[in-house]
Amino acid sequence: MPEKTLENKKLVMIVAFRNFRDEEYFVPKEILEKSGAEIKTASNQIGQAIGADGGQVNVDLLVSEINPAEFDAIIFVGGPGCLSSLDNQDSYDVAQKTISHNKVLASICISPVILAKAGVLEEKKATVWSSPMDKSPIETLEEKGATYQAKPVVVDEKIITGNGPAAAREFGEKIVEVLTEK
């Protein structure tokens, strides 16, 4: 992978203040930073966000303060705290504005449910976390007009979705790919 391909690119990674999925934040972040991107972290509270596995990250801004026009990509991270913290109007507004500004919108694990509820996955191909016991995330995507694909990572134009922690590396690499396409 060429170094510094994302120089001068600004990205926001959105995490739940409590119980974000560590690998889905730290693995893509490392890939993106190695590519030269500047990354801010947003959440539903200011302070020290804590991952489900104990990883810690300083929150730079609230979700409600994000102006997608100022960033090249907005990335929603999943985890057990994702929907309780981030499934709300602030997140929907960010997702909708990201699309209206023609920016890259990425989402992993359970967080594609937020994009679906924001209405930005209509007529788009996407993936989302699910389990044999819980297919409701897939149902939400389909109810909101998305075409679910059972793949680790799905790219549809400038929307990138990943299905969970095992896809974190490929997810990060796809974000780099989409941001460097002419």
Which fold name corresponds to the CATH topology? Rossmann fold
**How many beta-strand elements?**
12
CATH class assignment? Alpha Beta
N-to-C series of helices and strands: EEHEEEEEHHEHEHEEEH
Largest sheet: 7 strands, mixed
User: Residue ranges: pLDDT <50 for 5 or more in a row?
Assistant: none
Strand content: 15-25%
Q: In which range does the helix fraction lie?
A: 25-40%
Number of helical segments with 4 or more residues: 6
Q: Determine the structural class based on helices, strands and strand pairing.
A: alpha/beta
| CA-based shape | globular
Rg (C-alpha, Å) = 14 Å
Nearest-integer average pLDDT = 96
Going by CATH, what is the homologous superfamily? Class I glutamine amidotransferase (GATase) domain
Strand arrangement within the widest β-sheet reads: 6-3-1-7-8-12-11
By CATH, the architecture is named 3-Layer(aba) Sandwich
Distance between the termini: 17 Å
Q: Compute the number of structural domains.
A: 1
Could you characterize what this model shows?
This protein is of the alpha/beta class and 182 residues long. It has a single domain, classed as Rossmann fold (3-Layer(aba) Sandwich), CATH 3.40.50.880. Helix content is 31%, strand content 24%. The chain has a seven-stranded mixed β-sheet, sandwiched between helices. A three-stranded mixed β-sheet has the order 2-4-5. The two termini are 17 Å apart. The model has no long low-confidence stretch (mean pLDDT 96).
